[in-house]
Amino acid sequence: QLTHFSALQHQNEPPTCSAVIKTIDHDQVQTFSQPEPASNSEKTAVKFKPLLHISDGCHPANGDCNYPDVGGQVYSRSNWYKDKWAIVYAWYFPKGAEFVLNHVKGHRHIWSHAIVWTDSPNPDASAILGVSLSIPTGYEKEVPPKAKYIEGEETVKLDSYVDYWVGNQSLSFTRKWGKTKREQLTDEARDSLGMFDFQPESSQVNVAMPLKNGVFLSNLRETYPKTEGLDT
Predict the structure, then answer these.
(1) What's an example GO cellular component term for this entry (predicted)?
(2) Average confidence (pLDDT) over 162-168
């Protein structure tokens, strides 16, 4: 399911309401119905939405590790950065895997994200220039992404897996087909995602919501591919 954070385009924009954050059990998570995208940024986010294949680890859904009936949870936010239109797609995993001392243990909350760098927010006249993926050691960047990882010049194919070398969930490019759907959040749900502390006490994994104010722009700075292919 895809939610575009169009209401949070501006880095310093405050939450739209004074959210009182309440938690629910991971298996009670439900999706939101998706209205048709209206703005150019929403349409472009839908146009370039990635396909996510799950090799191992849990799905970004309601806590069931395989084949969730209610759909996955993926969110996006976009803005200009260095004259490029950057779209950040973030997947929330209620359950994460962590590899410690030859054992795989689980913990609550994992966020993975990918940044699709394009030349315009116009859905009718835009193209992918590069892609940056969050990995446990930083970011993997491809400018331009290899054709074998792109379907129809618009859809990046990604894989979610457990990286046993560094110990937790990671993203990589893949030739395999994944899944994607669309959704939309209420203001209250969006604000709660931005304000809630996802950091598990029992985990060494740094967990931060990639689209929240104070994190979104920092991610763009860190992931911007400084290559001749993008710096034109």
Answers:
(1) extracellular region
(2) 70
